[in-house]
């Protein structure tokens, strides 16, 4: 990740795109530095996962906070509060850093893993949760497109309608 040149959170268009994350910029900087991850990646996860809402819960109540960390990562949360922004960003950064490490630095594999993708994931398997009654639990098939061609460039992929699958549109 040290070879990646990234957009500053303070530069336009990122400054506007990440306006709802502004109060968390120090956390993205702190944990980005600790794990050698560009802060805009962490802000991008927060926007992609929760629209920078620290009280967001997803995956039918199984994911929490800004970074939508899962219950298995909440063991050390202060007072058991997984949604605490500091703890949540710390664990989100650690999760992505661990994904980078286990994939020998492969950013694409680590990004997919953060979204719950796994080796051998098919479109049918990604959409399975919707068929089982949990539309929001299905994998976002546009995750990589939105993250790489939107958020980390400081662009809002929802306003640009980035992606081709748009499988989560039916959940609204």
From TrEMBL:
- SUPFAM superfamilies cross-referenced by the UniProt entry: Lysozyme-like
Question: Which InterPro entries does the UniProt entry name for this protein?
Answer: Lysozyme-like_dom_sf (IPR023346), Transglycosylase_SLT_dom_1 (IPR008258)
Q: Which keywords has UniProt assigned to this entry?
A: Hydrolase
What is a single molecular function from GO for this protein? hydrolase activity
Question: What are the Transglycosylase SLT domain coordinates in residue numbering?
Answer: 27-127
Which domain of life, per UniProt? Eukaryota
Q: Which Gene3D superfamilies match?
A: 1.10.530.10
Designated name of the protein: Family 23 glycoside hydrolase
Identify the taxonomic lineage of the organism of origin.
Eukaryota, Fungi, Dikarya, Basidiomycota, Pucciniomycotina
